[in-house]
Amino acid sequence: MATIKVRQNGPYLVDVPEDVKLIDWNGNEYVIPRRPFALCRCGASKNKPFCDKTHSEIGFQAAEAAVPGSEDKPAQ
Ligand code: FES
């Protein structure tokens, strides 16, 4: 089963047990560097759609959680 983990103030971490295609709006395929891989959520990556850790430099603060209003837990 594929798992997409929303990292606290960070990217979407995509873990899939088999090959997956990531394509743009024209159907062109991105090369997946490795698995799991991280997709940028902050919009500041210089290597979109992948996360290049710029989120930590810009102090990205995400607000959404799966359960709105739930208590935050430490990032893992
Ligand atoms: S989420 Fe990491 S660079 Fe955007």
Layout of SSEs?
Layout lengths: L2 E4 L5 E4 L21 E3 L14 H5 L18
Antiparallel strand pairs: 1-2, 2-3
This protein binds FE2/S2 (inorganic) cluster (FES).
The site of FE2/S2 (inorganic) cluster has 12 residues, from α1.
How would you portray this structure in words?
- This protein is 7% helix and 14% strand.
- By secondary structure, the protein is mainly beta.
- A three-stranded antiparallel β-sheet has the order 1-2-3, with no helix packed on it.
What amount of the residues lies in strands?
Answer: 5-15%
What binds here, in terms of ligands, is: FE2/S2 (inorganic) cluster
| Largest β-sheet summary | 3 strands, antiparallel
Uncertain runs: none
The helix fraction, in percent, is: under 10%
Count of distinct strands: 3
Separation of termini? Answer: 21 Å
* Overall average pLDDT: 91
Overall spatial form: globular
Q: Number of helical segments?
A: 1
Structural class: mainly beta
Query: What are the secondary-structure elements, in order, as H or E?
Result: EEEH
The Rg value, from CA coordinates, equals: 14 Å
* Widest β-sheet, arrangement of strands: 1-2-3
List keywords for this structure.
single chain, 76 residues, 1 helix, 7% helix, globular, binds FE2/S2 (inorganic) cluster
